[in-house]
Amino acid sequence: MKKSGKVMNVKGSKVYILTPEDEFAIVKINSITPVKGELYTGYEFYEMHKGLKLLIFFILIMGLAVSIYFIKYTKATTSFIINMNAEFKINVNKDNKVVKIEALNSKGKSILNTSSFFNKNYNDTLKRLYNVCTAKDYFSKEYLSRTPYVIIYINATSQNINLDFTEFEEYLNFRKLDLIINQNGKSNK
């Protein structure tokens, strides 16, 4: 808001004035240099409280920290494709948590439409996917007579240092299925 009054003092970028209503006001210096005792018009000077500045700074730092954590957390470090009659591409972060899962066929889409697998350990996700496939009868006797196994494809660009499918393999072996891991065209069986 604009204020006009007699210049009482000038300090830095602030002009202290006395308005015709006998009110003291602080205005910002504009292009006209103020002279003590003369009339001066400028916009009111609002100084932010130090505590408010600290609060805003703290909120910005926390927002930045949360953003960095979120970006790092949701960044996939490896991915693999699993075929258990329903096909999925699963992206995993450095903490072995599923950050993204895509269905590669219609059976996979029907499963993803009804279940969420985000932020779960990839071995737990594979077990849940197997259980949902079994419940939807994707492992019928006819299918199992042709392919009595589950295949995981890992490509050459994946940084698959932490991938260990032993837990899922034991889970499948207990159910009389084999797990075939195909890494860069080389199979474990």
Topology:
Layout: E1 2-11, E2 14-18, E3 24-28, E4 39-43, H1 50-73, E5 78-84, E6 86-92, E7 98-103, H2 106-112, H3 122-135, H4 141-146, E8 149-154, H5 166-174, E9 178-183, E10 186-187
Parallel strand pairs: 8-9
Antiparallel strand pairs: 1-2, 1-4, 2-3, 5-6, 5-8, 6-7, 9-10
Order of helices and strands: EEEEHEEEHHHEHEE
- State mean pLDDT (0 to 100 scale): 86
Strand order, largest beta sheet: 7-6-5-8-9-10
- Largest sheet geometry: 6 strands, mixed
Radius of gyration: 33 Å
Estimated helix fraction: 25-40%
How does this structure look, described?
The protein has 189 residues and is α+β, with helices and mostly antiparallel strands. The protein starts with a strand and ends with a strand. The protein has a 6-stranded mixed beta sheet. The protein has a 4-stranded antiparallel beta sheet with strand order 3-2-1-4, with no helix packed on it. It has helices at residues 50-73, 106-112, 122-135, 141-146, 166-174; strands at 2-11, 14-18, 24-28, 39-43, 78-84, 86-92, 98-103, 149-154, 178-183, 186-187. It has 5 helices and 10 strands; from the N terminus they run ββββαβββαααβαββ. It folds into 2 domains: 2-43; 78-187. The mean pLDDT is 86. The chain is rod-shaped and about 100 Å long.
Briefly say what this structure is.
With 189 residues, this protein is an alpha+beta fold. Helices cover 32% and strands 31% of the residues.
